[in-house]
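Hi everyone, sorry if this is the wrong subforum. Our group has a chain we'd like a structural model of before ordering constructs, and none of us has done structure prediction before. Sequence below.
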Amino acid sequence: MFTVDRKLLGISESDRLLDVGCGDGRHSWGIYGCIDCTVYALDIGQENLIRTRYTLGTIDEKEKRNGRWLTIRGDALHLPFRNAAFDKVICSEVLEHLHDDRKGVDELARVLKADGMLAVSVPAYLPETIYWKISKEYHNTPGGHVRVYRAGELVALLRQSDLRICAIRHKHALHSIYWLLRCLFGIKREKALIPSLYHNFLVWDLKTRSRPVRWLDDVFNHVFPKSIVIYAQKGDDGRYPSSN
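Answer:
Right subforum, don't worry. Here is the predicted structure as tokens:
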């Protein structure tokens, strides 16, 4: 399940892409599998990096690639890269975990090249607020979410780092319903009957990409999306005025 649209991000084979907080590497290997660009996948979790490395290596073997990728264990608040190192940067579902999101965004902007593109996604405000009210377990977990963003707050945060907003998208409405069920039936009870049945439906949808279900998801993305994705650009002089 991909949250960031590689076409909106405008990735080409000559690009260096950084995936910050890559998790199991879904964006890293999803993009690398389609475009032979250079991918850097960074995460604080070693197990996540092992899974990401395995999938990227499998792509190399299958497509006879030369391994233009690297997995790095690192901290989103202290990115181990020089200034302006990357053409494209992805930071998906990470900022809501950071206690200092201002510094996190500054780091993303710092390593982005002039005229480069950044894609940031966070949980959407409405469903996230409902989850917090229904279930204390949802956010009171080690490494869990520490804040909820309104769209305007995230836009303002990016603009403070002199990034120009290019597009805003809403994603994964059907997954919002799944997490609503998890909160209602108990976060730790993922095998409960109704959440489990709904999860099976989501897995089926991911495999089949049924047109009617895709249409339904697109419609509900305007009402109850799981994530908001903002695409932003750094000016060709290395910055944009914050008033943009």
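For your construct planning: The first helix runs from residue 6 to 9. The CA atoms of residues 187 and 232 lie 34 Å apart.
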